[in-house]
Amino acid sequence: MADPVTFIGQWLESILVGWGLSSAWISVIMGALGVLVLGGGVLLVDIFLVWVERKVVARFQDRLGPNRLGPFGLFQPIADVIKLLLKENITPQGADKFVYNLAPILALATVIILWAVIPLSVTVVGSTINVGALYIVAVGAIGTLAIIMAGWASNNKYALLGAFRMVAQMISYEVPMVIAILIPVILAKSMSLADIVASQSVWYIVLAPIAAVVFLIGAQAELGRAPFDLSEAESEIVAGFHIEYTGMKFGLFYAGELLHALTFGGLFATFFLGGWRGWGAETYPILGIGYFFVKAMFMYWVIMWIKYSFPRVRIDQMLNFCWKFLTPLILTVLSITAILDKLMSGVPYWIYVLVMLFSNLVILYFVYQAVGRYARKERQKVADPEKVQVNFRVRSSTPSQAS
Amino acid sequence: MLNDWLFIGLMLLIAPIFPIGAIVIPSILAPKKPNPLKSQTYECGIETVGDTWVQFKAQYYNFALVFLVFDVEIVFLFPWAVAFNQLPLYGVIVGILFIEVLVIGLIYAWRKGILEWF
Predict the structure, then answer these.
(1) How close does chain B come to A370, measured CA to CA in Å?
(2) Which of its termini does chain B have fewer beta carbons within 10 Å around, N or C?
(3) Cβ separation of B3 and A27 shorter than 8 Å?
(4) CA-CA distance, A364 to B54, in Å (whole number)?
(5) Could you give the residue ranges of the DSSP H alpha helices within A61-156?
(6) What ipTM describes this predicted complex?
C-alpha cells in the first residue's frame, strides 16, 4: 500500500485481464487511461495556475488579487473558464482559417505532450524513453511553430511583427538552453530523464550552477516573459501574435503559456534540483510527486519573480546577450565539464563534486571580470561623449558596416 | 520499451483532443452574430492600408542561419554526451575540437557583423 498509483494500475489491469482481453489491447487501454489522467491532471493544475499567477502578481504589485469568489478567490479561474467558453469566436477578415484555428490547438497540445517523459516519482512516469532530453527539445520546438502560424495566419501587422520577434528570440535562446541541457546529460551519461533524476545523489545545481542559471534564462526567453517579452510589448505592438484571437482560442494561448512556465519549472527541477528525490521518496513514491511539484512550483515562482521585477530589453540587446554572452559562456562550460568529467573518472564522488563546483566558480570569476570591463567601457562612452563619436566613426568604417 | 513509445504515440493522438474540445464547445454554446465591421483587422481604428504579408527584415534570416549551424551541432553532441563512458580521453578532446570549430564560426560571424542588429 506504499504506492497507491501502481496499486490502482495493477487493479485495473487485473480487471481487464478478467474480461479476457489480449495483452496488446490491455497495454493500449492502460496507456490511453494514463494519457487521460496525466493530461487531465495537468490541465486541472493549469486552471489553478491562473489563480496562482494572478495572486502572486498582485502581491508583487502590492495589491490583493482575486478574493471574491470562494475562499481566497479560488473559484475565480473556473468562472473565467466558463466566461471564455461562452464568448463569441471572431475570425478576422482575410485570415487563413485552417492555420488560424490550428495554432492555439498546437500551442496547448505541445505543452501537454511534453509531460509524457517527465518523471513525477519513482513509479509514476508516463514513458521512460532513452532519448527523453532530445524529445523535450524536439517537442518544445513545435511551440515556436504554433506562434509563427498564429502570427502569419491572423492577417494583422502587429501579429506578424510579434511572431517574427518571438521566433528570432526563441531560436536564439534555444541554443544556450539546449547546450545547458547537455551538461546534465554528460554528468548522468544518459538522455533518459528518469536516469538523470536517479543519478542525482547530489543535485546537479551544485555540480553545474552556471548551466542551471543559463537554462533558467533560456527558459525565460522561450516563454516570452519579461525581460524578454518583446513579442507582446504592449506599448509597441499591442499584444503580439495572439492579437486577433478571441474567447477560448485566446484562452488556449494563455493556458499554454502558463502551463509552459510550469513545465519549464518542472524541467529545471528534473535536470538540476533532483526531480522527485527527497526524504522517503523511494519507499513512498507518492511523496515523490509532492516533492516534484513543490520544486516545480518554486521554480515557477522564481520565473514569475523575474518576470515582475525586470523591465523589457530591446531586441538588439536581447540578441547580443544571447549570441555574444550566453552562447560562448555555455560552450566554455560544456568543454571544461566534459574534460574534467573524463579526467576524474576514478576519483571519489565528493572530490568530483568539489572540483566541478570549483571549476564553475573559477569560470564565474572570469565572467565577472569580463562583464565588469564591458560595463566600464559602456559607462565611459556615456561620460565622455566625444569619445563616443570617435568610437562610432571607427565602427562605421569597418568593412562589415561599410558594405 | 515498445510500451514507452506506445504511450508517446497515444499522447500525440489524445493530447490535441483537450484543446480541440475547448474550441468545439464554444462553437455550440457561444452566440454567433458576425458582421463585417466586427471581423475587420484590428489596427488603430482606421482601416488597414496595404498588404499584411510585407517584406520583412532580412536580418531574421541571418540569425536563423546561425541558429541552424548550432542546432545541427547540438544534434551531433547529444550522442557524444550519451556515449561518454565508452569514449577514451582522445574521443572527448575530438568532441571539444568539434565545438571549438563552431566557436570559430561564431567569431567569424561576429567579426563580419552578422550579429549586429541595425
Answers:
(1) 17
(2) C
(3) yes
(4) 44
(5) 76-85, 97-114, 132-153
(6) 0.86
In a domain, A81, yes or no: yes
Number of independent structural domains in chain B: 1
What does the mean pLDDT of chain A come to?
83
Structural domain range at position A173: 4-343
Structural domain range at position B104:
59-112
List CB contacts (< 8 A) between A42 and chain B.
Answer: none
B39 lies in some domain: no
- In angstroms, the CA B41 to CA B62 distance is 30
Q: Where would I find the H helices in A61-131?
A: 76-85, 97-114
- pTM exceeds 0.95 for this model: no
Asked, for residue A355, whether it belongs to a domain, the answer is no
| Structural domain includes residue B97 | yes
CA–CA min distance B20, chain A (Å): 6
Q: Which of A27-36, A133-142, A230-239, A383-392 has the highest mean pLDDT?
A: A133-142
Cell 533560456, residue located: A218
Provide the domain count of chain A. 1
A331 within 8 A of B99, measured Cβ to Cβ: yes
In the A/B pair of chains, how many CB contacts fall below 8 A?
Answer: 221
> How does residue A401 score in pLDDT terms, banded at 50, 70 and 90?
very low
